[in-house]
Design a protein that fits this description.
Blueprint lengths: L3 H4 L14 H9 L5 E2 L9 E3 L6 E4 L2 E5 L2 E5 L3 E4 L9 E10 L4 E7 L18 E11 L11 E3 L16 H7 L5 E7 L5 E7 L6 E10 L5 E9 L6 E11 L5 E9 L1
Antiparallel strand pairs: 1-4, 2-3, 3-6, 4-5, 7-8, 7-9, 9-10, 11-12, 12-13, 13-14, 14-15, 15-16
Length: 262
Amino acid sequence: MATINDYGFPFSSVGTDRQYGSAEWRDYFGRLISSGIIQNNANECKVKPQLTPNKTVFVDTGSIVITGAMLVVSAKVNLTIDQNTSGQARIDRIVARLNIADRKIEFAVLKGTPAVSPVAKALTRTSTIYELGLADITLANGYSTITAGIVADKRQDEGLCGFAKTMYMQSFDDENNLLKYNRTVVTVDADSNPTKIEYRRPLDSSLFLERTYSNADTNGYYQTCVEKFYLANGTTVYKTITYTFTFYLNGIIQTAERVVAI
């Protein structure tokens, strides 16, 4: 059995010298595409409550990639949530699970432990089992119905799930495709030029990018632009880019410098 490291990949086999198994193909695709939900495909595997039965949820249609393996969800997948008669609240986590031994990607419920301040169970991530967290469901003691209000969407949380991206352009995909974010002009100057703009994630309105303009020259052109990029929690900055400009009299940029701080 050949591997990517032996001769490159893939090539036609001659006398079984270039045979590849599923592990090699997962390795190949895993180097190209990060794990996560594929955006803009069907309903992006969102977890939603069902009207009936009243203690069930479903994973909607979409596609998901987990360490190089992919599942296309062409019909919603129903999941039953256990009742809670413990006397305390519980958080159940809905996961997509790559199971190498069973040769499949499946959806499952990680049943939480009841507590005064409950937390969801940690994800399993090993060479044979790898899970992505899609949603957390907070279940009160004696709950009777699952509503949208108790289902917390976790698909945008990069630590739990995230969206699949091309590996070689992972940062570029997020930071340069701003059309997918909700743009708001927060402040303007006396001439109605924006001085602060926010870009928020459409699913939960968490802050993705804050862009501020300052240090206007004598003609009113802003010579400094600072971009702060935020993690999925909307509060932690993971990268800051500072641009410094000089301008010709007509407003065309004469020089530009870019400094990145991570």
